[in-house]
TrEMBL record:
Catalytic activity: N(1)-(5-phospho-beta-D-ribosyl)glycinamide + (6R)-10-formyltetrahydrofolate = N(2)-formyl-N(1)-(5-phospho-beta-D-ribosyl)glycinamide + (6S)-5,6,7,8-tetrahydrofolate + H(+)
Protein's GO biological process: 'de novo' IMP biosynthetic process
GO cellular component entries: cytosol
Annotated site, Raises pKa of active site His, chain positions: 146
Gene from which this protein is expressed: purN
Pfam families in UniProt: Formyl_trans_N
Listed name of the protein: Phosphoribosylglycinamide formyltransferase
UniProt family annotation: Belongs to the GART family.
Enzyme class: transferase
Function: Catalyzes the transfer of a formyl group from 10-formyltetrahydrofolate to 5-phospho-ribosyl-glycinamide (GAR), producing 5-phospho-ribosyl-N-formylglycinamide (FGAR) and tetrahydrofolate.
């Protein structure tokens, strides 16, 4: 059994997708030890409660430095014997301490065809660009913003009459299939 921690900052739909796949037996060798969030009011906390999962809420503002913040996270990860970190809408850059402790064992999903449209509002950027395709990317996490080695990408058409919400929803549907598939392939 491989123990993973899932980090999320928002609604947690990718988190829930992974948990559903585990419950349905599609990720039989994965155990999620806890949800880690940096937002005290994030909806992902509610989703974690449905699975009776521990939640670690750790706000950077409560620590004198990012290094101290990450030391606390590493304490939890170590005590839970976490082997992999899965970012699912976690909106903070992972710092040097966690990167060293989990070198090439942190993955992220991003709603664009990286290296295009890194960072926030990737879907809006793609929509405004005039591009006819976008997609989603799973990648290893490094010290940059969405710059790690690409593991897998899926594409999605951008229609001329798309709203941002429509495009986000199509990408989200893809992400909910792609992320568990990649987890199964590289972590199990």
């Amino acid at each position: 059994m491989t123990k993973i921690a899932i980090f999320a900052s928002g609604s947690g739909s990718n988190f829930e997708s992974i948990m559903t796949q585990i419950e349905e037996g599609n990720l039989p060798n994965i155990e999620v030890t806890a949800l880690y969030t940096d937002q005290v009011n994030a909806y992902c906390i509610e989703r974690a409660r449905k699975y009776n999962l521990d939640v670690h809420i750790n706000e950077l503002k409560n620590f004198p430095s990012k290094a101290d913040y990450e030391r606390k996270i590493i304490e939890w990860l170590t005590s839970e014997q976490v082997e992999w970190i899965v970012l699912a809408g976690y909106m903070k850059l992972i710092g040097e301490n966690i990167l060293k402790a989990y070198n090439r064992r942190i993955i992220n999903i991003h709603p664009s065809l990286l290296p295009k449209y890194k960072g926030k509002d990737a879907v809006g950027q793609a929509l405004e660009s005039g591009d006819t395709i976008t997609g989603t990317t799973v990648h290893y996490v490094d010290s940059g913003m969405d710059t790690g080695e690409i593991i897998e990408q899926w594409t999605c058409d951008i229609y001329t009459d798309d709203t941002k919400e429509q495009l986000e929803e199509r990408i989200k549907v893809m992400e909910h299939k792609l992320y568990p598939k990649v987890i199964s392939k590289i972590i199990q």
